[in-house]
């Protein structure tokens, strides 16, 4: 299937590993020009080598609004346009709501909501000038089906839904779409780093404990496949949605 992404220019935050890296990989395969950002220079270099040098890299923290704005402006200036924004950042620490003070909530809000909004605000004027755009904000299945042990995530990430749906109405007619991707348990570093025994056995145990009907956790490339379709020309009539990719755990709740 041709997703009609050839020559589109994309920014992928958190693109040096995990879901972000797989999204960047798929965009490159589809012929897009891709710039990835992350905080760790070694991981960025490894990602670029992994993708055969087919991406440019930017070292930044998504919470640094000035740096994000410069990334968007300079990428658009270099390539003549900007079309695609993938906002993606780490999640807040696990724990019940009462285990965090207000500073913990502020930190989680900055990373889990405001950093995403800042990237959209930085890139959106370029998408509007191009007359075509796709925005996918990556959050968590907790926006649809809360997980009690992730109190901060349950609270702060839901704000992105209101932002995305409001933005859709503000943008109105045209060819710019805004969607939220909500992955479930996925075999990326946050999940894998806590495993000390056999990885396959532990992932199966996690899937069973989480009640995932498919009986396993997601692979990063499966999340990327959903994201890249939403970023494509073919998804032009899909906007304002929350696309859950959780192996059926939420069952449409």
The spatial strand order of the largest sheet comes to 3-2-1-4-5-6-7
CATH class category of the largest domain: Alpha Beta
CATH architecture of the largest domain: 3-Layer(aba) Sandwich
Number of strands: 7
Compressed to H and E, one letter per element, the order equals EHEHEHEHEHHEHHHE
Average of the residue pLDDT scores:
93
State the low-pLDDT regions, or none: none
Cα separation of the termini:
31 Å
How helix-rich are the residues, as a percent range?
40-55%
Which structural class do you get from the secondary structure elements?
A: alpha/beta
Query: What coarse outline follows from CA principal-axis ratios?
Result: globular
Say what the CATH topology of the largest domain is. Rossmann fold
User: At the fourth CATH level, what is the homologous superfamily of the largest domain?
Assistant: NAD(P)-binding Rossmann-like Domain
* Major sheet description: 7 strands, parallel
The number of distinct helices, counting runs of at least 4 residues, comes to 9
Determine the strand fraction and express it as a percent band.
Answer: 15-25%
As for the number of domains, it is: 2
What value does the Rg take, in angstroms?
Answer: 17 Å
Q: What does this 3D model show about the protein?
A:
It is a single chain. This protein is α/β, with parallel strands linked by helices and 253 residues long. It folds into 2 domains: 9-183 and 220-245, 3-Layer(aba) Sandwich (Rossmann fold); 187-217, no CATH class. It has 9 helices and 7 strands. The chain has a 7-stranded parallel β-sheet with strand order 3-2-1-4-5-6-7, sandwiched between helices. Helix 1 (18-29) crosses helix 9 (220-230) and helix 3 (65-79) packs parallel to helix 4 (102-130). It starts with 8 loop residues before the first strand and ends in an 8-residue tail after the last strand. The mean pLDDT is 93.
């Amino acid at each position: 299937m041709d997703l009609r992404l050839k020559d589109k220019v994309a920014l992928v935050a958190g693109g040096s590993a995990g879901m972000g890296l797989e999204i960047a990989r798929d965009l490159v395969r589809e012929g897009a020009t891709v710039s990835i950002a992350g905080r760790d220079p070694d991981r960025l270099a490894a990602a670029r080598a992994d993708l055969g040098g087919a991406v440019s890299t930017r070292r930044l923290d998504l919470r640094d609004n000035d740096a994000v704005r410069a990334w968007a402006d300079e990428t658009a200036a270099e390539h003549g346009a900007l079309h695609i924004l993938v906002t993606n950042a780490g999640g807040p620490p696990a724990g019940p709501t009462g285990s965090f003070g207000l500073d913990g909530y502020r930190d989680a809000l900055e990373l889990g909501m405001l950093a995403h909004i800042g990237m959209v605000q930085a890139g959106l004027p370029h998408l509007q000038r191009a007359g075509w755009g796709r925005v996918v904000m990556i959050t968590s299945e907790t926006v649809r089906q809360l997980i009690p042990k992730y109190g901060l995530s349950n609270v702060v990430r839901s704000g992105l839904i209101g932002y995305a749906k409001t933005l859709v109405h503000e943008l109105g007619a045209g060819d710019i779409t805004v969607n939220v991707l909500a992955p479930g348990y996925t075999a990326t570093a946050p999940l894998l780093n806590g495993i000390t025994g056999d990885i396959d056995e532990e992932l199966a145990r996690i899937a069973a404990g989480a009640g995932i009907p498919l009986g396993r956790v997601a692979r990063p490339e499966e999340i990327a496949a959903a994201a890249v379709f939403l970023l494509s020309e073919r998804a032009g009539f899909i906007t304002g949605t929350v696309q859950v990719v959780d192996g059926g755990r939420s069952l449409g709740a």
